Amino acid sequence: MKGKKVVIDTLNALLTGELSAADQYNAHAEMYRDWGLHNLYERMHHEMEEELEHAKMLIERILFLEGVPDTASREKINVAATLPDAIKSDLEYEYVIINNLKNAIKLCEKEMDYQTRKILLKLLEDSEEDHAYWLEQQLRLIEMMGLKNYVQFRAAGEPNPHAV
């Protein structure tokens, strides 16, 4: 099915964002593992995998619309040096992705591409209700517990990768 160029271009821009987020999450996950925060590593690795799943969905849609997926482009990422800065950096990136998804959804409505809109709504739900929400929780925990207690809490682990 031949898609509209403006929609395909927008999907490619979203793809760049998802792949860039996966790169940043991967770098931070590896930092957490190096620091001995294995449970935090597991969670961020999970987030990286979800970003790659989002990228896969975008690639599939671009191909369906007879476009060419741009899997080479990346946004500038911010690999932070400290745990709080890494979480803040990841959250800021999620906010950018969320804003871009909302704008893309508006475009799809304007272009009457409701199937692409449906896919983007799923990505938005993951980004808002899972990724950004979890990162916001971590910053609140650091604020409430202090960094030392938070690190101890994360070093002790969590029973479920989706738990607080």
TrEMBL record:
Record's GO cellular component terms: cytosol
GO biological process, one term: iron ion transport
Residues involved in Fe cation 1 binding: 18, 51, 54, 128
Catalytic activity: Fe(2+)(in) = Fe(2+)(out)
Domain Ferritin-like diiron residues, every copy: 1-146
SUPFAM superfamilies: Ferritin-like
Keywords, in A-Z order: Heme, Ion transport, Iron, Iron storage, Iron transport, Metal-binding, Oxidoreductase, Transport
Binding site for Fe cation 2: 51, 94, 128, 131
GO MF assignments: ferric iron binding; ferroxidase activity; heme binding
Entries under Pfam families matching the protein: Ferritin (PF00210)
UniProt xrefs under Gene3D superfamilies: 1.20.1260.10
Keyword flag Aminoacyl-tRNA synthetase: no
List of residues binding Fe cation 3: 46, 50
InterPro entries named among the record's database cross-references: Bacterioferritin, Ferritin-like, Ferritin-like_diiron, Ferritin-like_SF, Ferritin_DPS_dom
Residue ranges that the Swiss-Prot or TrEMBL entry lists as coiled coil: none
Function, in words: Iron-storage protein.
Protein family according to the UniProt entry: Belongs to the bacterioferritin family.
NCBIfam families the record matches: bfr
Protein name according to UniProt: Bacterioferritin
